[in-house]
Amino acid sequence: MKKLINSPENLVVEALHGMEAAHGDLVKAHFEPNYLVRADGPVKNKVALLSGGGSGHEPMHGGFVGKGMLDAACPGAVFTSPTPDQMYEAGKAANGGKGVLLIVKNYTGDVMNFELASDLLKADGIDVESVIIDDDVAVKDSTWTAGRRGVGTTVIAEKICGGAAEDGLSLKDVANLCRKVNAQGRSMGLALTSCTVPHVGKPTFELPEGEIEMGVGIHGEPGRTRMKLKSADELTAMLMEPIISDIPYKSGDEVLLFVNGLGGTPLLELYVIYRKAAEIAQAHGLKVVRNLVGSYITSLEMAGTSITMLKLDHDMKKYWDAPVKTPALRWGL
Amino acid sequence: MKKLINSPENLVVEALHGMEAAHGDLVKAHFEPNYLVRADGPVKNKVALLSGGGSGHEPMHGGFVGKGMLDAACPGAVFTSPTPDQMYEAGKAANGGKGVLLIVKNYTGDVMNFELASDLLKADGIDVESVIIDDDVAVKDSTWTAGRRGVGTTVIAEKICGGAAEDGLSLKDVANLCRKVNAQGRSMGLALTSCTVPHVGKPTFELPEGEIEMGVGIHGEPGRTRMKLKSADELTAMLMEPIISDIPYKSGDEVLLFVNGLGGTPLLELYVIYRKAAEIAQAHGLKVVRNLVGSYITSLEMAGTSITMLKLDHDMKKYWDAPVKTPALRWGL
Fold this sequence. Notes:
The structure is a homodimer. By secondary structure, the first copy, chain A, is an alpha/beta fold. Chain A folds into 2 domains: 8-184 and 322-331, Rossmann fold (3-Layer(aba) Sandwich), CATH 3.40.50; 185-313, 2-Layer Sandwich (Hypothetical Protein Tm841, Chain: A,domain 3). Helices cover 32% and strands 23% of the residues of chain A. Chain A starts with 10 loop residues before the first helix and ends with a strand. The relative contact order of chain A is 0.15. Chains A and B meet through helix 1, helix 6, helix 7 and strand 14 of A and helix 1, helix 6, helix 7 and strand 14 of B.
C-alpha cells in the first residue's frame, strides 16, 4: 500500500485540518466529534442541510459545505458510517431555527445512525426530516445495504436542495423536493481496479488484468457481474441501459447527465464516456440540458466511472442553476 | 492496461467531442487540426491566450478555455507536443485583433513547435508574444527538456493572465505579467506510481512497492531520486524545501499555495499535504493568502502530488480573484 498519509488513524482529522486551512472562508472544522460546518453558519431562518458518510468519497460530502449546498457534513472513518453523536452535534450547530434535513445514503449503518441522530435532535425540539437516497440500479441488496445503494444522485440532491433551502422553502418542501430528486435519479457504476482502505492495508477486492466489476458499489461492493473489459462505448451502453429502462421518462423529457470518476480514472476518459452517454440519452429522445463531468463521489483511488441521470423539472433546473460556493462546486459566486 | 477508451488512436478526438458535448456553452472543438476555442470567441480587442501540450494532463489545458482564462488550447496526442499547424490555426481562430500570447511549457518539442507557430502567425500580420514556463525546481535538464520543466505554475499563469487580458491589458503587458508569474513561481512533484500511455500499453516506468520517485516530471520523467516512501509530512517537507530555498521571497510576503494531484491520488490525501505545506510556508514567514487544491495538471492516472508556490503581488492577486468560467475552473460567473 502506497499512500500520502501519516497514519491511517490520523488521516480524516488531518484532512479536515487541511480543508479548514485551505477553505477557512467557507468551512469550519470541529473535532471530537468531527464535522464541518459553513463558516458563516448557522444561517438564521434557512433550512439546514446535513449529510455525511464514510470518508474516502471526497469531495462528497465535506467539499459540498458552503452557501447553496450543505450546512454541515460528518465524515466517518474511511468507508465507515459516522456516529450519531457526530450527526447530532453537527445538526445542532447547523440549525438556524427552520429545521434540519438529513440527506442519507442507503447503507445500513448510515441509516441507523442518522435515525438515532434524528431522535436526539427532535428531543431537543429541532424539526428534522430525513431523506434516504437509493438510486443505484445495479443491485437490489448488497453488502451493507438492504434495498438499493445510495450513490451519485446524492451529489445532485445536495446541490438542488441547497438551492431550494437558500430560496426560503420550508423543511417539508425541501424534503419533498429531495424525495422527488431521489425518485427521478438513477445511477450505475463500474470498476477497473480496486482500492485500498488505509487501516486495512490491502485492496478491498482483486480484479485480474483485463477484467472489470460491472455495477460496483462505492466501497467496492460486488456489482452485477465480473466481466472482461470492453470498449468505452460498449461499457457506457451497459451502464446507460439499466438506468434508462428504470427511470420514469417519456421522449422529450429533460435530464441532467452526470459522468463521475471513481478516483483513479483520468478526466480524458470521462469525456469519452460522456460523449457516448449523451448520444445514448438523445437516441432515447431525452434532452440533456444540464450536466456534470468529474470525480465528485469517489472510492479513494479506484479506477472506474459511474453515470447518474436525473429527470429534471422546472424547480430542479432552477435550483441546480442557483449560485453555489463550496470547496468543490462553485458557480455564480 | 485497463482504460475506459475505445482505441488509443481515437482517444483525444473523442474526448474533444465529449468536452464540446458537455460544455458547448463555453468551448467549441475543431478537428484536423484539433483545437478548442472559446464558444463566444474570438473576443474583439482582447489579447488572446493560447496554450497547449500533450494530452494526458487534463483538465490542463482544454479545461481552462473560457471567459477569464484561455481563448484556445491545442491538445497533442498523449504526452506528445501538438503540431505547429494546430497552434497556427488555433491562434488565428482565437485572435481578436489585439494579438496572441502563447503560453508554452518548457519541453523541447513544445518550444520548437510553438516557435514555428509564432512565425506563421507573425507572417499573417498577427502580433505574437511567447512566454516559456520553467518552474520545476526538481532537475535542471531532463528527458525532453533543456533547463527546468514547465509544470504547475502554468495553471496559475493561465488564470492570472486570463484575468489581465479580460481587463484590457496590452499584449506586451500580459506577456510581461506572465513572465513575472513564471519568475515568482516554483514547483516540485513526486510519484507513488507510474502511468500508462494508451498507445504504448505498458507503464512508463516501474516503481516497486514501498518506493517513490521524488521530483518526477509530468510525463513520468525521472526526478531527483528514487527513494523509500515516507510519511506525508516528511514528503511534503521534501517538496517544500527546494521550492522555498529557490523562490525569491522575504518574510511577510504573500503567496498562493497550490497542492495538485497527479491523477490517481485521492483528495483526502491532498488535504493532508496542503495542511503541512501551509504550515511550512507559515513557519518561513510566508502568508498563504490564496490557494488551490485538486487535480489540475495531471499525468493520466499517476498517483502522486506536486506543490506549486507563487509569490504574489497586487496585480496577480487581483487577476487571480477575477471572474472565470471554464469547464474546470469557475468562480464569480
